[in-house]
Design goal:
Helix 1 crosses helix 4. The chain has a 6-stranded antiparallel beta sheet, with helices on both faces. It has a single domain, classed as Roll (C8orf32 fold), CATH 3.10.620.10. It starts with 14 loop residues before the first helix and ends with a helix. The longest helix is centred in the first third of the chain and has 13 residues. Helices cover about 25% and strands about 20% of the residues. By secondary structure, the chain is α+β, with helices and mostly antiparallel strands. It comes from Suillus plorans. Keywords: Hydrolase.
């Protein structure tokens, strides 16, 4: 059975924190950990202009939203019985599923539907809008993530600290490893950046991400 994101905190425009807490909820559940590998995936590119379709904030149907970055959670089957098999009907527990709080698609969605309806083939979009995917294990994401939310401060803000979008009411997030390293904010440098050598996880293009989701 697929885990549901029940009671997981959600704040509009803070996708990275929404996914942080969803990862935390799933890692707390022994059955989920036994069945699935849990990943956070940050979507961005070197220009921080990625085009995503099927988003709730799209101005109209069949229209893309241009994000500087986005974050989703991926559940990837731990079963190896189906890997390398073609034209095989898979059970729920043998598939890869994607959770996106900001999508109009069902949550979770089968990875094939989500990728097809959210990320058209690179050949169909201008290079500056093509997505790259930084895939980080759930455990590493919880340990290493830190954000002081300064990236959400309005450029015109003064000492009043006016935010572009209201921040979550809970305290800022800082994982134990990030804190041990003295980080209070590594979101943009270690997760969103797709060209930083010091980032966490693995950066993939669309083709590689599709192969990874399919566990080919």
């Amino acid at each position: 059975m697929l885990p549901k994101p029940l009671d997981s905190p959600y704040t509009s425009c803070y996708c990275e924190e929404n996914i942080y807490f969803l990862v935390h909820r799933f890692l707390e559940q022994a059955q989920v950990k036994a069945t699935w590998d849990i990943f956070a995936v940050i979507v961005s590119n070197v220009t921080k202009t990625v085009a995503l379709w099927s988003q709730l904030k799209a101005p109209a149907a069949n229209t893309a939203v241009i994000w500087d970055y986005h974050a989703v959670l991926v559940l990837r089957s731990r079963s190896e019985s189906h890997r390398g098999l073609l034209n095989t009907t898979l059970s729920i527990e043998e598939e890869t599923w994607i959770y996106d709080f900001d999508s109009i698609l069902e949550m979770p969605s089968r990875w094939e539907e989500y990728v097809e309806k959210t990320f058209p083939p690179d050949s169909d979009i201008p290079p500056q809008y093509r997505s790259l995917f930084r895939v980080i294990s759930g455990e590493e994401y919880l340990r290493s993530f830190a954000s002081d939310r300064s990236h959400m401060l309005s450029p015109a803000a003064d000492s009043s600290n006016e935010y572009i979008s209201p921040p979550p009411l809970y305290p800022i997030v800082c994982g134990p490893l990030a804190a041990a390293h003295g980080f209070t904010n590594n979101l943009m440098t270690h997760f969103v950046s797709m060209e930083s050598s010091k980032g966490y996880g693995t950066v993939m293009d669309r083709e590689t991400f599709v192969s990874w989701c399919s566990q080919a």
